[in-house]
Design a protein that fits this description.
single chain, mainly alpha, two-stranded antiparallel sheet, about 0% strand, transmembrane
């Protein structure tokens, strides 16, 4: 079995495709840092300005009916959001982090109230999901009580990680798919590999899964190292005790959240690798395999109403940030879509994939 591990590992690291994925994955975090720093795309300045514009537009629309008492709470909420964006802008202009943080807290509190009370302008305002808003309010209250600034721009390592967290799952998932889209194709195409190394389907499959998982983890570590090192060389490490909410309730320091996020991401990657192997047991086309696996991962985003009922499938939990923040609960409108259940389902369906894969390979070899 050790010989098989070594054989699979050599195949993986000598694959030009795998090394290209590793290089692109590492480069993506360097390019993204400089692009976000220069364009200010994720800075609170731009997001608060979008909120202010929407609040003014909605205020003008709903203020037409001046005699309606029912509109007053909505108008007061829109006014509170607009005022909060003004405080944020003032804090940024005067370089007063406390003012900026307090303005951001006021904005998130008003947005949370709009979500909770289901005001008419709910669908025309740029509001984060309910669990994210709840978590943001809790995190900002912790920062306020401790006199610490909020992450408002991509600058330090910690602020870079905090602001790109919602998008990391997509980048990492794409890397897992690209690494594993030919995971079993070579053995199917070259039958001599099977006759030269007459292992059972379970042992051969386990060896390939373990080696691909190892390379996948190596890729994640390399990318994370650059996520930390690149901003640190310019602006420093930042605050790795920054409070982040889990499921909108529990507060963890950033370094603990990263460990939890990393564990769930690795588990999601293992499921993607095992599913790619399962698809490869029928299909020998790399591009078609990548398309099928990617489509499966995107289904919960495209059809959330369907996955309200199919919450027991593993695909919704591939987005680690959505699972941990609780926005998956909001997306599917399904309270059972929790971190614990998602972790258990990813484990369970990985074994299901491997079981079906083993049956298929045995049938093919017979």
């Amino acid at each position: 079995m050790g010989t098989q591990f070594a054989f699979d590992w050599r195949q993986i690291i000598h694959s030009r495709k795998n090394m290209a994925v590793l290089g692109l994955f590492m480069a993506a975090f360097i390019v993204a840092f400089f692009a976000l720093s220069w364009t200010k795309r994720l800075d609170v300045t731009q997001t608060s300005q979008a909120t202010a514009n929407a609040a003014l537009a909605n205020y003008a629309e709903y203020n037409l009916d001046t005699l309606s008492q029912a509109q007053k709470p909505l108008l007061a909420n829109l006014d509170a959001q607009n005022s909060a964006t003004g405080v944020i802008g003032l804090g940024l202009q005067l370089d007063e982090p406390d003012t900026t943080r307090n303005g951001l807290l006021s904005l998130r509190t008003a947005q949370l109230a709009m979500r909770q009370h289901h005001y008419k302008a709910l669908n025309t305002m740029p509001l984060p999901p309910l669990h994210q808003l709840t978590g943001d309010v809790r995190s900002l209250n912790v920062l306020k009580s401790e006199g610490r600034p909020a992450a408002t721009s991509v600058s330090t390592s910690a602020s870079y990680i905090v602001l790109v967290l919602p998008y990391l799952g997509w980048i990492i998932g794409a890397a897992a798919i690209l690494l594993s889209c030919d995971s079993w194709i070579e053995r199917r195409r070259h039958r001599t590999l099977i006759t030269a190394r007459p292992l059972t389907a379970g042992l051969a499959g386990s060896s390939r899964l373990l080696m691909l998982t190892g390379f996948y983890i190596l890729t994640l570590l390399a990318g994370f190292a650059l996520m930390v090192a690149t901003p640190a060389l310019i602006a420093g490490l930042g605050d790795f005790n920054y409070p982040i909410a889990v499921m909108g309730t529990a507060i963890l320091p950033l370094w603990q959240y990263i460990l939890l996020f990393g564990g769930l991401t690795i588990l999601a990657g293992i499921w993607l690798i095992s599913f790619s192997m399962l698809v490869n047991a029928w299909i020998t086309n790399v591009y078609l395999t990548a398309f099928i696996v990617m489509a499966a991962g995107l289904l919960p985003v495209m059809l959330p109403q369907l996955f309200h009922f199919l919450w027991f499938l593993p695909m919704p939990y591939l987005d680690s940030y959505a699972t941990l923040s609780g926005t998956l609960v909001d997306r599917l409108n399904q309270p059972l879509a929790s971190v614990v259940i998602g972790t258990g389902l990813l484990f369970l369906w990985t074994f299901v994939n491997l079981f079906i894969f083993g049956l298929r390979v045995k049938k093919e070899a017979a």
